[in-house]
Specification:
ScpA, two-stranded antiparallel ribbon, elongated, chromosome partition, 7 strands, Arc Repressor Mutant, subunit A
């Protein structure tokens, strides 16, 4: 039986098993069992143990205690796993059989865990070997360069250097901008009442949009106040066909130059 061997650290280097359904390294046998590619119930564990004992006798003292212990742990796990696998299948109701099935799964998990620990140990060992081949340079200057320093030449004297330091460390005043020279334009409500009255008297009816077509934002607000004053005085009427629609303003008659009482608004100033 020929199978491709995967890269994995060896538990027992050089130890191979020769069975009727498998022939190859012992680690490859473990990999096939852990991947369920080979049924552990079909493996003659007694024959594997006999071959390992013969392998130990051949190597003698050259075989380390760690490798022997690893084989015993794995062999015991495989033996327990095989015994649990031999339980009858189907629906199990006996508590003892259920416990045996749980033990089987636990043993299989132990086998996978052992394999993972073995691979991790090999990886750590490789990192240690790589670290042993690297040497870090110690910090600091070498002895021959420690006393060799360049001469420092300053083009300025001590007094000038002190003045430069004082100027650099002196707190600078926070910049500020004066607004006293700025002023906004004032818009009078009384003046806008006269303008609106003259335009409506001449046109008869205008929309509010037409009344403020030549206005900036501030003048638009004041002109709206003027329209409200004319409405309160009964000089104009409002027409609006739809909610939020175009607002029409109709002149109801009268002399546009006739003085009228207007609430004393403070002159609105542009900010």
């Amino acid at each position: 039986m020929t199978r491709r061997r995967e890269e994995a650290p060896e538990t027992t280097p050089g130890f191979a098993v020769h069975l009727t359904n498998f022939e190859g390294p012992f680690d490859l046998l473990l990999q096939l069992i852990s991947k369920r590619e080979l049924d552990v119930t079909q493996v003659a564990l007694s024959q594997v143990t006999d071959e390992f004992i013969a392998h130990v006798r051949v190597l003698g003292d050259t075989l380390g205690l760690e490798q022997t212990s690893s084989f015993l742990v794995v062999a015991a796990t495989l033996l327990d796993l095989k015994a649990a696998r031999l339980l009858p299948g189907g629906e199990v109701t006996d508590p003892e059989d259920l416990a045996a099935l749980e033990a089987r799964d636990l043993l299989f998990a132990r086998l996978l865990q052992y394999r993972a620990f073995k691979q991790l140990a090999a990886w750590l060992a490789e990192r240690v070997r790589d670290a042993e081949q690297r040497h870090w340079r110690p910090g600091g200057l070498e002895e021959r360069f420690r006393d060799v320093l360049p001469e420092v030449e300053l083009p300025v004297g001590a007094d000038r250097l002190a003045r430069l330091a004082a100027r650099a460390l002196t707190p600078r005043p926070v910049p500020s901008v004066q607004l006293t020279h700025l002023h906004g334009s004032r818009v009078s409500v009384v003046e806008q009442v006269g303008i609106v009255a003259e335009r409506l008297n001449a046109a008869g009816q205008l929309s509010f949009r037409q009344l403020v077509a030549d206005c900036d934002r501030l003048t638009t607000v004041v002109r709206f106040l003027a329209v409200l004053e004319l409405f309160r005085a009964g000089r104009v009427s409002f027409e609006q066909a739809d909610p939020l629609g175009e607002l029409g303003i109709r002149w109801l008659g009268g002399d546009p130059n006739q003085p009228m009482t207007v609430d004393e608004y403070e002159s609105v100033e542009e900010p």
